[in-house]
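I am still getting used to C-alpha cells and would like to learn alongside you. To get us started, please write out a protein record for me. Start from the sequence, derive the C-alpha cells from it, and show both lines together. Once you have written the record down, we can walk along the chain together:
***
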Amino acid sequence: MIKRRVLIVMDDPETSQSIQARLEHSALEVDCAETLSKALEHVFKMLYCLLIVDLQILHIDNAELVRIFRAAKHTPILALTDTLEVQEKIVLFHAGVDVFLEKPVHADICAAQANTLISLYLESHERLEKSSPITFGVLIIAPCYRQVLVNEKPLELTRREFDLLHFFAKHPGQVFSRDQIYDRVWGNYYELGGDETVKVHIKTLRKKLSVLGDGIIENIRGVGYRFIPPK
C-alpha cells in the first residue's frame, strides 16, 4: 500500500509550516523543500501521493517547472499561484497541474483540497494495481480479463481458482494460513467448512499449475502455504 505522503515545495516557511501542521493532523506524512533541487531530490527518492508546489519558487517559466516535476514522476500537483489569466491556467493544465489555489493560501482550504486529491489518486492507483498483469516468466496473470496464460496458452481456471492464484501472485514468498487465505479470497462470502474449501481449491489449482513444475504452491507444515513463482 502506498504511504499517504505529501511534498510541499515552497520558500515561505510560515505558510509551509502552517499547511504541514494541518496535513499531519490528517495522518499524512509531510516533507518540505525550499528549492527546486531539494524538491527533485525528495521526488526521486520517495513516492508521494501529492506535490504542493508554489509556482513562484523560482524565476523560471511556470509551465517548465511543472514539466520538470511531471518528468520525474506522475504525481498529482496542487499548484499555488499568483492571480493568473485564463490562458495561463490552460497552459499549466496542459503542462500537468491538477488543481490551482491562488495566493494568499488559506491553510485549511489547502489541506482539504490536498486530502481530496490524495483520495482520488489512491483510488485510481488501487484500481490500476488490481487490473495490471502479473508476470513470472512464462506465467502471465491478467486480472482485467481474468485470464491466465502459461507459455502463451490459456490455463482454464474456475472463478475461485483464479482468485486464489491472483492472491498468491500478489504476495510471492509470503506464508498464509488457511484462515487468512479464506478471509482474503472468499471474503464475506460464508461457506461451511472454509478450512476444507481452501484445501480442495489449492489441490485443484496445484494440479493445473503442474505444467510449470512442482512446488509452485508450497505447503509449510503446521503453518500454511506460500507461492513460489516460476522462473
In short: Residues 74 and 96 are 9 Å apart (CA to CA). The mean pLDDT is 86.
